[in-house]
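tl;dr need the bound structure. longer version: we got a ligand (zinc ion) that a collaborator sent over and nobodys looked at where it sits. i said id run it. heres the input, straight from their email, havent touched it
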Amino acid sequence: MTEKLFDNGLLFEFDAMVISCTEAKKGFEIILDRTAFFPEGGGQAADTGVIGSANVSDVQEKNDTVIHYADKAVEAGSSVHCMIDRDKRFRRMQEHTGEHILTGVIHNRFGYNNVGFHLGDQGVRLDLDGVLSKAELRKCELEANKVIARNVRVIVSYPDEKALEALDYRSKTEIAGKVRIVTIEDCDVCACCAPHVPDTGSVGMIKVISSEKYKGGTRIYIVCGLDALDDYNRRLDDIYEVSHLISAKPEKTSDAVAALLNENNAYKYRINEIERTRAAQIISSLKNESRGSFCIFTENMNVNILRSIANEGVKLTDRAFGVFSEKDGGFSYIIVSSGIGLREKSKEINSVLDGRGGGSDLMIQGSVSADKARIEEYFASL
Ligand SMILES: [Zn+2]
């Protein structure tokens, strides 16, 4: 059984004795007499860091023993100096404590419970067993940030059975043995084994990024503390980039993008009109005296227009008609048949004309990289 030191979330360095070190599939499994490394559990990823000169990439707990997965061996029986990746751990404590505060506020206001929790490197995902509107969530977010501003203590305790029974706390179910209670004054009481910051001020801020309906409740994504600052900077960089690209003030980007989209739709409509006119001209000029297979060539036409040309052209043949539209050095095509099964032929077309595509006996579509002369030669024999 490993003595656990992560009650004190701010213990980032400690000395320990190596109980054992065994070679595993990947690297080494190290067991210490005591550890401040938090093992993966309850939706939170494991701490990383170093034991002596060995890098610890994962930590797991099995039957009260904490196993550190490292890239190097350390000598059993020796004393080692251990360091937890301080920045990562601190950010996770900010995230985790922030989650307690927000869930506590929501629980007090609406009575909902947290029924799902994940804390990785990109903030916290939490699932509530009740529905919250965006406006309600905004209010809770503000209240949670006021709990941060009040800078109240985050207290860890292990009440005895009697005291526990009398206590009203979240996650009251299925915890056997000693229960660790994390209390945030005037905000939240919750059973939890993970490390937290010692006061709410250390969380810095709680920001709800998004929320959605999930399994009859609400799934919420939040970022807290230094991760929230990084997130803010990323979003700001993005807005400035967009603002620069579309020459609009940062606070006016959505109006400017909406105007651009309108303009773009008008262009699309205009292009479509032009393509339809071109298609009508092509259709009126179609000729095929031989009634055999034939094809025509055009360029940069969308597939719907190609199809309308193909459906007219096929009336002039008792074999097959293809329309090829040049694009990026190759051709996209639609071939329509009035007398031959195209599904079988498509393999031959792919191979002879160096292309890809398929479809039904009546119509196939795809692209080829063969040149115009090769395509015409093939159609003469089709
Ligand atoms: Zn917790």
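gonna send this back to them w/ a short note. The pocket of zinc ion is lined by residues 96, 100, 182, 192, 194, 196 (CB under 6 Å).
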